[in-house]
Amino acid sequence: MKLLAGLVALFAIAGAGTATQAAIAGQPAGWTGEVGSVGTQVDAMLPGGYSNPRSAEQAVAWALSQVGVVRDAGFCLRFVDLAYGRSSGPGSAYLVWTGSPAALHHTSGMPPRGALVVWSSAIGRGHGHIAISLGDGRMVSTTSGAVSILQIQGFSDSAYYGWMPPYFYV
């Protein structure tokens, strides 16, 4: 069942991820604006000498393989940590944002594939929320119940910090 859910999600992403070149205001240098593009652009935004055990594309693939699986409900940061091959991270989702260099923060534009999308402590019982962008306005997220693909816009917009490359300061 888990495999079937992952395959369905992959085909849904493949159909929705048509490449479109668009100049998106507020994007960092080198960002092509390609919707659903390979996550290597996000990995290239990380500070020199920093890397995660899994690349952004590997993290997205792992996260998509979990769609439909009931796991990590209420523990979004644990899910994101595991996606990037990390055993642990900061104590709360919003701390990924507040503990990272401001130069990594992007508050506008389409979050690229593999980017972390982060919400403030105003939600998530004071812990905020974190998920992985699919690069097309959607994210892989665990909130309650099964891991799912959700729209970024409309998910507690008033608490949305923005997006950043997968940098965990721990």
Q: What structural keywords apply?
A:
disordered N terminus; endopeptidase fold (from Nostoc punctiforme); alpha+beta; 170 residues; 5 strands; single chain
Helix percentage: 25-40%
| Radius of gyration, whole Å | 15 Å
Overall, the morphology is globular
Number of DSSP strand runs: 5
Largest sheet: 5 strands, antiparallel
Account of the 3D structure:
This protein is α+β, with helices and mostly antiparallel strands. It has one domain: endopeptidase fold (from Nostoc punctiforme) (Alpha-Beta Complex), CATH 3.90.1720.10. The protein has five helices and five strands; from the N terminus they run H-H-H-H-H-E-E-E-E-E. The protein has a five-stranded antiparallel beta sheet with strand order 4-3-2-1-5. A hairpin with a 4-residue loop joins strand 2 and strand 3. The chain is globular and about 35 Å long. The N and C termini lie far apart (35 Å).
Short overview:
With 170 residues, the protein is α+β, with helices and mostly antiparallel strands.
Topology:
Elements: H1 2-16, H2 40-44, H3 56-65, H4 76-83, H5 93-98, E1 116-119, E2 129-133, E3 138-141, E4 148-151, E5 160-164
Antiparallel strand pairs: 1-2, 1-5, 2-3, 3-4
Helix pairs in contact: 3-4
